[in-house]
Amino acid sequence: MESLLLKSIKGEKIERFPVWLMRQAGRYMKEYRELRQKREDFLSFCKDVDLAIKVSLLPLELLEVDAVIIFSDILVPVELMGVRVEFKDGEGPSVVWDGVVESLKKLSFNSADFVNEIIMGVKKAQKEVPVIGFCGAPFTLLSYMVEGGGSKDLRKTKLYMWKEEGYNSLMTLLVENLVEYLRGQVLAGADVVQVFDTWAMHLSYEDYKDYAETYLKPFFERIKRELNVPLIYFYRGSSSFLEVLKDFAVDVISVDWTVDMIGSMRSINKAFQGNLDPHLLYADEGLISQKVLEFLRCIPRKTKYIFNLGHGIAPDMDFHKVKFLVNLVKSYRV
Amino acid sequence: MESLLLKSIKGEKIERFPVWLMRQAGRYMKEYRELRQKREDFLSFCKDVDLAIKVSLLPLELLEVDAVIIFSDILVPVELMGVRVEFKDGEGPSVVWDGVVESLKKLSFNSADFVNEIIMGVKKAQKEVPVIGFCGAPFTLLSYMVEGGGSKDLRKTKLYMWKEEGYNSLMTLLVENLVEYLRGQVLAGADVVQVFDTWAMHLSYEDYKDYAETYLKPFFERIKRELNVPLIYFYRGSSSFLEVLKDFAVDVISVDWTVDMIGSMRSINKAFQGNLDPHLLYADEGLISQKVLEFLRCIPRKTKYIFNLGHGIAPDMDFHKVKFLVNLVKSYRV
């Protein structure tokens, strides 16, 4: 029987909205923190297939969400390309790249064998819900490589992009590699893939069109044509580029809370995912309940919608409130 | 003779676009840094009328911009309301408020006599260009009071707002006080006023409508009706709320670079101000010239436009490049 998530994406009749949450397996869970202690280094933790399978499954066991996203990190393919990636406690990732595009490795569908094994393991462990594979968007990964980590303004990335010396060849390579990276995940059994574009939000509207869309559009077309799975695109700064996205070959647009999602659902014929402000999880249950129900009642269609937050769950959020939220959405009849 | 800025706002014929820059008097200028040394504390510096007049005039003298914005800080009226405001070197402002709305002071048009004197001084010192008075938007000021300073996510503000215990009375008082604060500036001679809404960008689309717009709309209507000057509204996260703003009583919408300003100018009949990505100022002059001319050629109107950046000039920007930018815009014929 087809899953609720896939039914909703396809526009088939559903009784309730499917729900999963970005960063649903994370530090806010006691069980996650316990498993995390088994490996000192974050990347080794991601690469430990058994641990990563256990972590991926936690939200299904503890929250009973409607989809499992595999536990991994968007920088995994960057490291496989030969770039040094390190995670230090309490800091963001450190990415050390020498700037030479030509010496970066080309990936094939089996380059990330451990990621593919995590997918197979999660598929084998349960049949109830679909498994979401994922990768970072080409521009977001390029920005980590150029900045040397996260950045609050993409200052270096913008200069690199405008100068166009290595930009085009690096983006071309990232697109090639990410298609292979996702191909491996789909061959391993991923039912859906999600592309995370965390950093495009810092681009101007014109630069997004000139420098990101140029690569995203064919990237999405290749995923749809060659991999043939439902495709979700999550990006921050969602109101900026929504008009551009209408023409993308994505099935689901996953948006943050700054966009008029409800208005957009009326005019854009794609499935939507999102977009509750995650800060609501700091409120008490009465307020959460009130705001979430107000929100759900405004969703204008009975289908083609996946409940999610507008961004990931933060480490200091209360597990019980997250569970309360999931139950609330699951009990709401469309 | 009417100034280029006012002509452009009114839609009268102009030969070139007017230009001024947010934070045009600031640390990136040697002359600013020299004057800044004359006072240890930042707020005392803002309140020293002679110094503030000199600082306000620096961009006219050194860059020959088309408007002078008075040198001050958006937290000045907050301090006048009885809240402790401190600026520590290298940190953002610290705002200590006890949370009691009832004990906050009501302002009148002459509460900020030193601000009004700065306007009079700048008007007296030159007749060439209009003088812009300003204030922070009610929501942005409330967020400083509730957070105790700047915030990257407005976590406390959102909870305060959703609970609605003090929110409505504080917003009502802020609107009243800010109308008076601007009234003083207009009586002192301000030709234009700009309202800075730096933090509304963190609100969801629905929350902006429910909690910010509710107060902004009547605030703007009162400014227009009672003070009768051209009104500019600058807000970050510009793509999120542009549709809402169409119905505001503002003359000029000042936007950041994440919005399709050029497309919006075709559909929204207001003057626009903005929206160059300020990071371009880190590029070399060749690239600045290329990108700025590309940008100017796309402006679809010959008037009702004011060139500005999408945000303020950063302290580490190069004065010579800022001057190069101003000259470039001034030499472009519409």
From TrEMBL, chains A, B:
CDD domains: URO-D. GO terms for molecular function: uroporphyrinogen decarboxylase activity. Keywords: Cytoplasm, Decarboxylase, Lyase, Porphyrin biosynthesis. The keyword Cytoplasm applies. It is found in: Cytoplasm. GO terms for cellular component: cytosol. Residues 18-27, 132-148 form the Uroporphyrinogen decarboxylase (URO-D) domain. The record marks D73 as: Transition state stabilizer. It is an enzyme of class 4 (lyase). Pathway: Porphyrin-containing compound metabolism; protoporphyrin-IX biosynthesis; coproporphyrinogen-III from 5-aminolevulinate: step 4/4. Substrate binds at R23, Q24, A25, G26, R27, D73, Y144, T198, H311. It catalyses: uroporphyrinogen III + 4 H(+) = coproporphyrinogen III + 4 CO2. Pfam families: URO-D (PF01208). Homodimer. Belongs to the uroporphyrinogen decarboxylase family. Catalyzes the decarboxylation of four acetate groups of uroporphyrinogen-III to yield coproporphyrinogen-III. This is Uroporphyrinogen decarboxylase. It comes from Hydrogenobacter hydrogenophilus. The gene is hemE.
